Amino acid sequence: MPGQVLRRGDLSAAGQVAALAARHAEDSDAHRTLSPEVIEELIRVGFCRHFVPRRWGGVAGTFTELLAATATVGAGCTSAAWCASLAAGAGRLGAFLPEDGQRELWGEGPDALVVAGLTPTGTASEVPGGWLVRGEWRYVSGVESSDWAFVCGPGPESGQGPMFFLVPRADYRVLDTWFPTGMRGTGSNTVVVDGAFVPRHRAFLRESMWRGHSVGSTARCHTVPLRVASGLLFAAPALGAARGAIAAWSARLGGTRDPASGDRAAGHRDLAWAVGMADAAGLLLQRAAQVADQPSVTPLEAVRNPMDCALAVEHLVNAVQRLFRAAGTSGQFAGEPLQRFWRDVHFLASHAALRLGTASEPYGRQLAQTARGKAGGPDEAGGG
Fold this sequence. Notes:
about 375 residues, alpha+beta, 2 domains, 4-stranded antiparallel sheet, globular
């Protein structure tokens, strides 16, 4: 409702954020970053605190709630939804820090804006009390407005897996390197750390996150294995983008402007097809979110979730593509929401976590293994 005061941590107010983000979407696209007003509202309604443990004032919320809120924001601006979802996901990493690290991150409140460089491209040299970290991490969304950054690097000890290091804003700089064709408003620039000291309480092994070995929290959002949940963070904005494209197309059919062909019946068919594809994708993502929120998952569910997310995004790309092509020349002008959603979903779908070929093979393998087990045949692990 207009004039309603947003309560901190209330993701149910995501619709108001969507309206604000939509008003700023063209400027965000042009300037390659979200406006400060949009960032503030994303924080205000609770995206940053959504996965923060309750003992630090957070919500320790569900993936189902985050999916719904992110998709709502995405209908107004895909870039805003992406930054919102990834801010929640990066904040979740804090639950794997030692207790003193969590206190430093959230001791003054749960709304710190955390970003993450997920690829282990940096280096860490062990020194008394911690590590000296240096390196560059590309494609860090929302970094200009961040308070902290998790950066990943190879473990300094032989045989040790990669580690995440939490670095305060004063210890990293940002290179303006984000010049993409889609998702332009995410401001996914490059983080540079020039030899920052990171104490031991601000680091953890990446394996802990993969396995869901959090510190001091038994909430499911902290104990769920990463592969069960990570695809949702990246797929949810695409669901919103498709809904935004459908709304833009519906406005054309509603009389404000005609579809390119002038054939309303064809426009209705395109609309019905796109809505059906988006609805199917939404159901896949809802199932994946419900699985991520369960107390435990089966081996089949664990590999089905990445598949569900990748397949959902495939459907969403096809839905937007159908409408964009049907819009003709008029839909391709700068400032038209439809062309922005089209650029965004195609760009988003290229993310490594959403590649259908990568996700489908483990799922197919597990399906075959499960079928053999039910039939009493040899399982794959036995080699027979």
